[in-house]
Structure formats: C-alpha cells, structure tokens
Model the fold of this input.
Amino acid sequence: MEKKENSLKVLFFGHSDNKGLKQYKANGSLDTIFLILVMYLVVMGTIMMFSAGYVKAESETGDPFDFLKNQILFLAIGIPAMLLFSKIKPDFYKRYSVTIYTIAVILLIVVLFYHTDIQSAEGDDYTRWIPIGPITIQPSDAAKFALIVFLATLMDNNRKRLETDWKFILPLMAVVVFTAGLVLLEKHFSATFLLLAIGAFMIYLGGGKQWVFIVGIVIAAIGIIFLITNMEYLPEYVQSRLKGWLDRDYDPLGKRWQTNQSLYAIGSGGLFGLGLGNSKQKHLYLPEPHNDFIFSVICEELGFIRTVLFVIVPFALLVLRGFQIAMKLKNHYASLVVMGIMVQVGIQAFFNIGVVTGMLPNTGISLPFFSYGGTAYIILLCEMGVVLASSRGLKSGGK
Amino acid sequence: MSIPQTKENTMVQRAVIVLAIILLLGFGICICYLGYVQLGLGEEYRAKAEDNQLRDSEISAERGVIYDRNGKELAKSASAWKIVIYPNKLSESNTAREIVIKRLADILDMEEDEVRAKAELSQYGNMVVKYRVEKDVRDEILKLQDQVCETVKTETGDTVDRKFARYIGVENDVKRYYPYNSFASTVLGFTGTDDIGTGGLELLYNSVLTGTPGRKITAVSGQGDSMPAEYETVTDAIQGTSLVTTLDETIQRYLEEGLDQSLKDTKAEYAYGIIMDVHTGAILAMTSKPDYNLNTPYEITSKAVREEIDKLVDEKMQEEAETEAWFNQWKNRTISDTYEPGSVFKIITAAAALEENIWDLTKPYVCTGAIQVEDRTIHCAHLEGHGSQTFSRAFANSCNPFFIQLGLNMGADKFYKYFEAFGFTEKTGIDLPAEEVGNYHTAEAMKEVKVRLASSAFGQSFTITPIQMITAVSAIANGGKLLQPYIVSKMLDPDGNVISKTEPVVKRQVVSEDTAKIITSMMEEVVKTGTAQNAYVAGYRVAGKTGTSEILEEPGEYVGSFACFAPADDPEVAMLIAIKKPVGQIYASQTATPVAADVMQKVMVYLNVEPKYTDEESENAERNAENVVGSKVEDARQKLTKAGFNVKVIGAGETVVEQVPSSNQPISANGTVILYTEKNAEKQTTVVPDFTGMTVTQAYMTANNAGINVSIVGNALSNNFVAFKQDKEPNSQVYYGDTIVVYFKSTSADVD
Done:
C-alpha cells in the first residue's frame, strides 16, 4: 500500500536523495570517436553552411560572411556548452526532468502568444520563435530534449510496469501527444512529427509492448493512406503541400517552387558535383540555401558520391556510435537518454534529406550540424555533451 | 546459445532494431532516393536548372558593308537596340505585366495583343518584343523599367527591394543604315524590318551580307540579375561579308544630280541612266528616278503621288495605291523596265551591216522621205526626205528608210544573228535581281512579215532593257567585245581580306575592231553635226546616238534615250540616259542629250581624262589670269588686256590689292578681271543679267558689260546654240568678277 501511495511521486521523481550537485559530476574519459565524429560534422557543417549561404548573406545583409560570423559565434557558445554538459551525469536531468519538462511546456505555451512577426510565403504566421533581446529561441528545440529526458525518467522509474502492463504505454503516449500537440498549435508540422517519432521510438526502446507498436504502425499507415487518398479531410494548406509533393507538375511557381529548385540543385550535382562553392542554385533560387535547403547545395557542389561519403555516412556513424555507447551503459536512464538523442539526430537528418529530395512533403526542418541556426544548434551541441558525459568511464572502442 | 530473456537483452535487441530502422530504413532509403534523384533524374533536373539559371540571348550580327569602289560606305550597320521582356518574371506580378503590356505597346507602336501574346509565354525566360529600335525609344524603355518596379512596389506594399527584378530589358542590336540616303537606292536596295534585303544588292547578296549571330548565355540569379561573370558564355557574332561595288560615289552623284535636274526640266515621269566602264563592264553609276530614301523606304518620294493617294477615300484603294507607289519607286528601271530603243538601236544595225558588208561606205543612199516595205509605206522622221547621203551621213541624220534598207538587204537571219550576238535576247547577267528581257521578233517572225524586220532595223516594234543597250554600245566602244556587266567587284571578309574578286567576262567578239572604230567615228559625227549636238563637250570627243520612240502600250507617250561614250579615240566610259514620258519636248536631243553632256564632262574631269581641245576650242577654253596683286594698276591692266581679258578697276589706289577672280580660278576667254586698288574696300555687287535665249557671243558681251564672267556649258562654238539655263537667278546680286554658269543647247528639236 505504501508503494501505491508513493506511486505518483515515484512516477515523476523517482527515489530522491540529497547528496548535492557534486554527485552529478561525470568522471572518466569520454568517447573520442564520438567526439571526433561530432567535431567532424561541426567543421564540415560550417564549411558547407558558408559555401551555401554567402550569396544569400550578401544579398540580405551586404556581407557575404555575415552568416559565417554568426555561426562561429554560436559555435563559440555551443562548443564550450557541449564540453560543460559532457561533465554532467545524465542523472542530473533525471533529477530535474520535471522542472525541465515544465519549463519547455511553459515556453511552448508562451510562444503561442509572444513570438516574432514572421510570415511564411503563404502568409501564415510563424509562431515558432520567442524573441529574447537580440536572439530568438525556438521552444520546440528545447521541447525535444525535454521530452527525451522526461520520457526517459518516466520509463526508468517505472521500468517493470512498462514491460508488464501494456496500459502503462497510455500515459507515456499522453505525454508525447501533449507535447507534440502544443507544437502542432504553432503549425510546426516537422517538429510535431519529430516529437511523435522520438516519443514512439523511446517508448519502444524503453520496453513498451511490441504488439502495441505493430498495431500503431498499421493504424498510422492506414490513416496516412486514407488521408492522402482523401485529402478533402485535411486543411487547405496541408492539401496543397501534399499535392505539391505527389504531383511533380503542381503549381511550379508556388507550392512546388522550393522543392523544384532543390531538385534542380541536386540533379545539377550529378555523380561528382560542380565543386565546392560552385552551386548555382544558391544564387537566390533556393529559398534557404544555408538553412533547410543546405543539403541541396551540398549535393550540387559535392555530387552524389561525396555527399554520401562525407555527409550521410558520418551521420550514420554518429548514430551508430551513439547507440554503441548507449548499449554499453549500465545506467538504464542514461542509455535511454542517449538513444533518444541519437534517434532525434537520425530522424531529423532523415526528414531533412527526405524533404529536400522530394521524398517527403515539404516542411521546414533543418539538418543538424549543417543548417544555420542559433539556439537549435546550441541545444544540439548540448545534447552531444550529454552523450559524451554518458560515455565517460566506458572503454572506448567497438562493442 | 540462445539469448536469455533478460531486461538488458530486450533493450539491446530493441536498440538494434531501432538502429537498423534509422540506419537502413532511414539513411539507406535516403541514399537510394538521393541516387535516384541525383543520378537517375539528374539530367532532367540539370536541364531544368539551366533553363532556370541561364538567359540565352542572341547577339545580332552586323550585315556586311557595301562600299563604292573607293571604299566609301554606301550601306553599313549602325547601333540599334532590341527590346526584351522576361515573361517568367512578369508572370509573378499581374500588375507589372499589365503595365508592361500597355506601355510597351504604346512606346513601340505595336498592337497590345501582340505584346500580350509574348508577355504571357511565362515558360520563357526572355522574349524579344521589337528589334532595331532607336536610341530615344531605348531610353524610354529604360525609364519604363524603373516605373514598373516602383508601381509594383507601391501597389503590392512589397517590402522586398525590387530594384533587381527585371521585367524589361534592352539589348544591343544592329540596324542597316544608308549614309547617303536615296543615293543609288534602286541599285543597293534596302533591308526590311527583319534585316533581310528586299531589293537590289541587299536582296541578291542577302545570304552573303548576312552575318552569323552570336549567343550570350548568362547565368542569372533567382532575382534576375547576372551572376558573376565566370558563368557567362559568349559566342561572338560574325559580321557578314562586305561587298565592294564598282559604283563610284562621285560619278553616281553626277548622274543622279543630272537626272534629278532633268526630271524637273523635262517634267518626265521617269529618268534613268547607266554609266559603264567600257573595258570591264563594271557599272560606275546606275540610277532610276524617281527613287527613294533607303532609310525610309516606305515614304513615298513623289509629292504628287502622295497627294493623290491621300485624296482616295476608300481605305483599301489607298492601301493598294500606296503599295503600287512603293514598288514603283523601289524598281530599278535600268534592268527591269523594257522600252523601245528607237534610233539608238541604229548603232547595232549599222554595225551589223558593216560587219556583213551590206552597204559600201561610199555608196550613197537617196532618202525620199518614205520607203515601201511590202504593202506598207514607212515614213522617214524627216518627212521631206534627206536626199542623197552617205552611210555616215545617213547615220548622223538618223534616216529611217536607209536603215530599213540595210535591214532588208541583210535579211532576217543575219539581222537576228547580230541582234542575238549583241545580247538582246538574253539577260546580261548583271548581278542585280529582277533583270528583264524585252519582247522581240525571232528570225522566223521577221521572215514571215518583212515589216517586222524593217521596223526592227531602226529600233521600233521590239523592246529591250537599258542595261542591254548600254552593254551593246559598250561593245562598240570596246573594240567589238561584248562584256558581262557587273556591279560587285570584290567580297571582303570581316577583317577586310579579299575573299573573292570579280574578273571581267568577255562574252564574245560581236563585230570586228575595225567595224567598231567606224561606228565610233559615225557616232562622233552625230554629236558634232548630227542629232546629238547638245552632247558636245569641249575638249572631250563624245560619240553618241540619240533615239526617241513612242511607247507601244501608251501611244502619245515617248521615251527619249541617248547612248554615248567618250573619249571617242580611246573610250573610257559609256553612258545611257533615258527620259521616259516627258511633257512638252519629247525628243532625246532635247531631253536626254543635255544631261549626258553635263554628266559626261564632269565624269571626264573626275577621271582625269586629259582634255584635247581643237584650235577653235582652245581659243574659247577657260584659262587662268596672271597674278597681278601688288603690281601697279597700269602694268596690271596692260598685262591682262594683252592676255585677252577685260579689266575693270575699282578704287583710286595705285597698286592692285586684290583681283577677282583670283589667279587660280579659270576664266573664259574674253572674261573680265576686277582689280581692287584700295585696302579693305568693300566688294561691289552687280545684277545678274538674264541670259536666256542669247547665243554664246551675246552672252559673252552681256557678261562683259555687267562686269561678270560666264562659264559655258554646251557647245560654245556654234551660234545656233542658245542659253536656256543659268546657275544664278537673273536680277540676283553677285560681286563683280563672279562667274555665272550658263547652259547652252541647240534649239532645233532634232527628229531622230
């Protein structure tokens, strides 16, 4: 009975202790391979961001180095932050997961009412960024990390229940849907999908009943097929986006414009590319050559072979290495967090590549390490710090 | 060993599954799809990307230049502009499109629908709306571009700076330009709005003159401005081949001035002339009046015709009349018009008869004023008859019965043989388009009906072209060798290197050199004592023959022509002048011959042909007065009087300060020299007398009395000649000592 009384407290906070902040300092050497992969992606990403973005930077600000300077500034904050986070044991986030999650939710609500005045090309308000002084923060970025640490906490604290009682999936799903739902209010579809995907993968990794996922996948598949074949049930703007995805000749100067320009860039690259710096599509054809569409410019300049070798493979290696670390961890919580982060990076890269190649419907999603972006990049680097912190004390090298 | 179902293993298993999903499903699919897009569809997308990024524009090629034989540019390319719109840019803004369509149609004087059709081709990056516009239009278009951007900005409240949004553009173009306007227009021809030659040399040599257009492929950014230059590919335009013609700008000018004047004097409908180098067949000048300004070919030159067209009420009739007037003024009548040569053709009959020994030179022929041919009586133009005359005299008299007799004696076959040999049955082959051949009788036809032979023998009942006539006459001047006339002597590549050269073509020896010489002397006699005395040019021996004939299809209308060459002893140039449908005086001796004399004299001087005066002529020849400035007045007077000049002294000074005319201006014999003896004395004026109707002697006297000089044009030896024209109006004021040019001609309308 005692246990039941405490169940709610345990659900959220687990078993408390009072040893002070020092106990969260991570010790031991971190995983060099993972660090090298991160640093490789940071350097490669910065180079490509500059190459892809200088025309746009010059056109917008008059200074071709404008984006690069800002990106370096973000790195100057992000890399020390990563190193700082690599010193913090993941248990720290478990201890404060409620707080972290609560802050994220508050930010997600705040952004609905207090946000920058930017409109999309279609005239919709972008309610995604909260301006704080000279910078803006995107609460959905924070929400990803918050959801990871919060879900991990919930699952770690209730591991047995999750593995034995399929119904326990429901509250977990509720948390995921609630978070994603808040983001959906911003009409930020990519982030919504990303959150749903992270949530689903994490619950699966945490030990949710397998059949629930199989049923879920079947239902989702039927639902998606139904909606695509019966688009009238979807809002107008979603319909036009889907049409633009499915029909290559649809509204070439409107909905399909961005995707077409992206495909022109990728197609121009061919097997070997036009050479670094030689993209033509970045000359104000691609809407965001330094951001969401940076991958198109990379394809155009580096060509298929080098894009796969220098961009996709390193991403895959990073995810692989992250999972290797996670699988070696004795700490179940940390393992879940690391895998959650790697799932996030992997899916985000997949989504981005999918969108710019026209494989997925067009939605604004950035490519980790490559896209220009302030708070998102810093948070990403912090997440890498979390993975590095988890790797401390493990023997480096393969499994 | 089976994996124990521990919690750790479950998680590891699941991690592996998730990893597999992300890596294989996620990145694996990404790589495959990327491969499909980048490699499978790559070519298609690359092509589309280039469509998108590259603006492909044509660089207009300059047409080749047309030069006269001294390198003067008769037709060349000048800078112009073409107006381009960017339909795909316009498709982004309806406001912009509407303004552009409306304003462009307005500025370029085009139909709105025409502009709209181009503006709505939104799949195109650029479309040329109009070629070859002038600078003022270009400037207006440039202004329009700014206006459109401004309007779009204010109307849409667009915050994006649209200064780079290009809706309209202006590119370099070339335009045909004719520096001499109407000069040699019917020979050169003009180029239409599409820069394609529509007549004359421009048409015949169109493919040669046309250059190869270049291409400029520029990479443009998404906002329409150029990307850095390294993306630019330029294939230069290659200028067309240039033509060096045989035309001589100076000679052509003399001929045109002469014929313009003659059109005014004779009130004829048409006047045309050809001047040919008798040694080569090269055309030195060729004109057909009235002509037109090559730069504005659609402007009707004749005011009378213009007025008549404007009077027409019916629009369709007006259009038709306009078209007819255009073709009329564009037509090169020297090659496209056929006419009855009349007595000029007697040159040919005479040459044939001589060559075939039909009539002994010394054998007299008695003209009774008519001759019976079969059942027809054909009258001589000189109704009372010429009486007994030699071959040469009959030629000078242009006696029709004599030539009929020659023809009849010769027979149709021989006559036709020479008719053919002199080139009247075929095109001369001159390098100009639309050359015609007239109607003539075949040998069979002439055999059948003798009158046909008889009339043909004196130049009637058949038609030829002026170019055929001058070519045949040139053969006489050229020792009997018939040449092929030509007008383009050289072709030059864009760097000025000669790529082809026309060599004179001798078609055949038509008559012997001896025959040619005899005919020449007969023709000279025509000018000296016959029907063409108005063609007399002091110092140069002109050989010629006049002819006046009624136009077959238009009874009551005449064409008077005069064929000649000079100098008779060593011919250089041949000339044919024809005056068609004159009003009043119809005879060639009054219409064509005076122009010929005027032009021939100038040509001879221009060609530096040394004048050879007869004694009589040299007495009258103009000469320079000695320079007496600075001498004592009395000495000067004595010197000049001794030299045969009249002297008039103005002022009370002792020494000559100035003499008018100065010592380097030739003065006619018996001319007047004015000596000013006071410094800064104002020059005194006198009144120009009216010389009209005076003989040469009378004119000299009148001039002396007036204290001025006259320069005689025409035969100054015969007092049968009277003045009919002067270059300064009677009663106008001139300075003492000035020279007035007075034109003399024979008043007897020599019937030929």
Residues 1-5, 160-164 of chain B have pLDDT under 50 and may be disordered. DSSP finds 25 helices and 31 strands in chain B. The CA atoms of residues 4 and 683 of chain B lie 137 Å apart.
